[in-house]
Write a structure and sequence with these properties.
GO terms for molecular function: N-acetyltransferase activity. It comes from Plakobranchus ocellatus. This protein has six helices and five strands; from the N terminus they run E-H-H-H-E-E-E-H-E-H-H. A five-stranded mixed beta sheet has the order 1-2-3-4-5. It has one domain: Gcn5-related N-acetyltransferase (GNAT) (Aminopeptidase). The relative contact order is 0.11. It is globular and about 60 Å long. The protein is an alpha+beta fold. The structure holds coenzyme A.
Amino acid sequence: MDRLYFTSTKYKLIELILKSRETRLALGSAGNEFHEDLFCEKPKWQCVVATTASDPDTVIGYSVYYPFHSAWKGMSLYMDDLYVDAKHRGKGVGKLLWQKVTQMGLDMGCKGLRLTVKEWNKTARDMYFHHGCVDLTDSCDEHIMHLSKEGMEKFVQDV
Ligand SMILES: CC(C)(COP(=O)(O)OP(=O)(O)OC[C@H]1O[C@@H](n2cnc3c(N)ncnc32)[C@H](O)[C@@H]1OP(=O)(O)O)[C@@H](O)C(=O)NCCC(=O)NCCS
């Protein structure tokens, strides 16, 4: 692993991510919240980034993750995002980032790793299958339910 290393120095990390145009675009409108939620007193999520040894100031990939709990199944890790700069894809960077996140989950005592992937994203889906992921979409007998912020606000008013 001499080509890559992971940095956990938090201020350096966010600076690196925001400096990189492509990764900043990948974060989209969540960029500001990402910053606030990562560096508050009780961070809501964690992040690993990959840089090359020859250019440690440029982020070439990152992954964002956080533990979540189920009363029935215990703690699992949710990998919210895995991203590698287009120029650096196909060289093992995404796998290293994913492995690092997976190891953190094991170290935390997680009982599984959860992620979602878009229907159109065949490359990522194939990668996840290739390394042992199981698609629960059709078999888990559950539906993913979401309440928008407006929906939340409306619901709590419904007394
Ligand atoms: C998905 C993504 C992170 C992969 O990163 P990458 O650095 O190109 O991937 P790697 O080179 O590390 O390859 C990872 C592994 O997946 C495998 N893989 C890659 N593409 C594959 C495919 N089409 N089918 C099967 N396996 C595939 C590789 O073989 C490798 O495993 P191996 O080395 O054990 O053989 C990258 O393409 C990306 O950032 N895409 C845009 C963002 C995205 O879609 N993220 C996922 C959101 S859920």
